[in-house]
Amino acid sequence: MTNDITAEIAIKNRTWAFEEAKAVVKRLRAIGRGQVQTPEKGYVLFETGYGPSGLPHIGTFAEVCRTAMVQQAFEALHPEIPTKLICFSDDMDGLRKVPTNVPQQEMLTEHLGQPLSLVPNPFGTDHPSYAHHNNAALCEFLDDAGFDYEFKSASACYKSGDFDETLLLMLKHHDYIKHAVLPILGEERAASYSPFLPISPSTGAVLQVPILEIDNENDTICFEDVDGTRIIQKVTGGKVKAQWRADWALRWHALDVDYEMSGKDLKSSADISKKILKILGKPNIAGFHYEMFLDEKGEKISKSKGNGLSLEEWLTYAPQESLAYYLFQRPTSAKKLYFDIIPKAVDEYITFAEKLNEQEPAKKLDNPTWYIHHGEVPATQHTPISFALLLNLVNAANTDDAATLWGFIQKYAPDATPENAPFLDRLVDYAIQYYKDFVLPKKSYRAADDRENTALSALADTLSNMESGLTAEDYMTAVFAAGKENGYEKNELRTWFQALYQILLGQDQGPRFGSFIALYGTDKTVTLIRDALDNKLAKTA
Question: What is the pTM for the complete model shown?
Answer without folding.
Answer: 0.91
